[in-house]
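Researcher: We plan to redesign the surface later, but first we want a full-length starting point. C-alpha cells attached.
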C-alpha cells in the first residue's frame, strides 16, 4: 500500500482519519498502532510478526537498560540488543549474497539460498530500535508504556521511507499533542507537495531514465539526459515520501523532523549532505561515528572511525552507483579514475557532515568537485588532507 495508491488515498487514510477524530484521546495511540499494523500487514503478514518481535525485544532491552545501575552489565545488555537488531538486518539483507558467494567458492551447494523477501522498512524501524536502546543506556527517556513504544516504532507515516525519528523527539507528543485546524491544513499541504513530487516529478522522470538504464543510451546526449532524469527521480522519490510522511504526521498531531531541504541548491559538499536525508546522516554521526570515539583519540583513530562510518553510510547507494556505472560504462567516458574520484567525493562530503570543524574543501563549488579529473595517488592523499586531519 503506497501513499499515492488509490487504496491508501480513497480508503485507508480517510477511514483512519475519521476513526481517529471520533476516538477518545486516551485511545488514539492504540488506534494509530492498530492502523499501522494493518498498513504494514497489507504488504506481508510474516513481516509484521517480525516487526512485533523486534518491538518487544527492544522495549524489554530498553527497560532493562534504564533500570541497570552496573556499567558493565549495562554495556553487555546494550551489546546484546544491538547484536540482535543487526543479526536480523544482516540476515534479511545479505543472506542471498553470502549463501551465493559461499556456494560459488565451494563449487557446490553448501548453503541453501532461501530467497527471502526483504521486509519493507526493516532498516528504519531497526535503526530506531537501536537508537532507543542506546539512548536508554545513555540515560535518555524510557517509554511510559509498550503501546507508546510500539506506536513510535511502527507509525505508518514514516515506516516505509523515513524520516528516522529518535524516541525523545516523539515521546512528549505521544503523551500529549495538540490538534488544530492550522496544523491539519499544514499537514494536508505538505502531503500534497510530496504527492506532486512523487507522481509528477519522480514517476515522470522514471519514464525517461528507465529506458536509458535498461536498454542503454543511443548517444552521448541521451546518456546525460538519462543521468539528469535519474537525478531528479531519486530526489522526487526520497523527498516526496519524506514530505508525505511529515504531512501525515501533522494530520495526526505529530511533528516529525525535517529530512530534505532543497539539497540540489547547496553551495558546498558539506551543505549538500546536511540537506539530503539529514535524519540518516545524523543517525550515523551520533550512534556510529561518535559511538566509535569520534575525533577524540587522534588522527589514526579518527580516520578509522570516518572510514567505518562512511562504509556503512555509502552502502545503500550501491544500487544507484550500479545503475549509473552501467550507463556510463556504455560510453566509456568514465574510467576507474572517475569512479575513484566519485567515491572520494562521497566519502569527503559525508565526512564534512560528521566532523565537528569545517573543512576548507566545503567552500568549493559542488560541480568543481564532481568534474575535477584526473586523479592520482598524490590526489588521494590530498583528498584525505581535505578532511582536516
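Model: Full-length starting sequence:
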Amino acid at each position: 500500500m503506497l501513499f499515492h495508491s488509490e487504496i491508501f488515498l480513497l480508503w485507508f487514510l480517510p477511514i483512519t482519519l475519521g476513526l481517529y477524530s471520533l476516538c477518545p484521546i486516551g485511545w488514539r495511540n492504540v488506534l494509530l498502532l492498530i492502523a499501522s499494523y494493518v498498513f504494514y500487514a497489507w504488504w506481508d503478514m510474516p513481516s509484521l510478526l517480525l516487526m512485533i518481535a523486534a518491538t518487544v525485544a527492544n522495549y524489554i532491552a530498553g527497560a532493562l537498560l534504564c533500570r541497570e545501575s552496573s556499567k558493565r552489565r549495562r554495556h553487555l545488555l546494550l551489546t546484546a540488543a544491538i547484536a540482535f537488531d543487526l543479526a536480523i538486518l544482516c540476515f534479511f539483507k545479505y543472506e542471498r549474497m553470502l549463501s551465493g558467494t559461499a556456494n560459488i567458492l565451494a563449487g557446490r551447494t553448501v548453503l541453501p539460498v532461501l530467497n527471502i523477501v526483504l521486509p519493507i522498512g526493516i532498516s528504519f524501524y531497526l535503526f530506531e530500535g537501536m537508537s532507543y536502546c542506546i539512548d536508554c543506556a545513555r540515560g535518555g527517556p524510557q517509554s511510559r508504556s509498550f503501546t507508546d513504544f510500539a506506536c513510535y516504532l511502527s507509525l505508518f507515516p514514516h515506516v516505509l521511507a523515513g524520516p528516522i525519528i529518535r524516541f525523545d523527539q516523539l515521546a512528549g507528543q505521544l503523551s500529549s499533542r495538540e490538534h488544530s485546524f492550522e496544523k491539519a491544513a499544514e499537514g494536508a499541504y505538505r502531503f500534497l507537495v510530496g504527492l506532486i513530487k512523487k507522481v509528477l516529478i519522480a514517476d515522470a522522470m522514471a519514464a525517461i531514465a528507465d529506458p536509458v538504464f535498461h536498454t542503454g543510451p543511443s548517444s552521448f546526449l541521451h546518456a546525460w539526459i538519462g543521468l539528469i532524469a535519474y537525478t531528479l527521480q531519486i530526489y522526487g522519490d526520497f523527498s516526496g515520501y519524506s514530505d508525505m510522511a511529515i504531512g501525515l504526521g501533522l494530520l495526526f498531531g505529530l511533528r516529525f523532523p525535517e529530512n530534505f531541504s532543497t539539497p540540489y541548491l547547496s553551495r558546498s559538499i558539506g551543505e549538500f549532505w546536511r540537506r539530503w536525508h539529514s535524519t540518516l546522516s545524523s543517525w550515523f554521526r551520533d550512534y556510529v561515528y561518535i559511538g566509535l570515539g569520534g575525533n577524540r583519540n587522534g588522527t589514526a583513530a579518527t580516520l578509522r572511525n570516518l572510514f567505518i562510518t562512511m562504509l556503512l553510510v555509502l552502502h545503500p547507494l550501491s544500487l544507484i552507483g550500479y545503475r549509473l556505472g552501467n550507463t556510463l560504462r556504455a560510453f566509456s567516458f568514465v574510467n576507474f579514475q572517475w569512479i575513484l574520484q566519485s567515491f572520494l567525493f562521497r566519502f569527503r562530503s559525508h565526512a564534512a557532515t560528521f566532523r565537528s570543524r569545517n573543512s576548507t574543501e566545503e567552500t568549493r563549488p559542488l560541480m568543481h568537485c564532481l568534474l575535477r579529473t584526473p586523479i592520482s595517488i598524490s590526489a588521494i592523499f590530498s583528498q584525505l588532507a581535505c578532511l582536516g586531519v
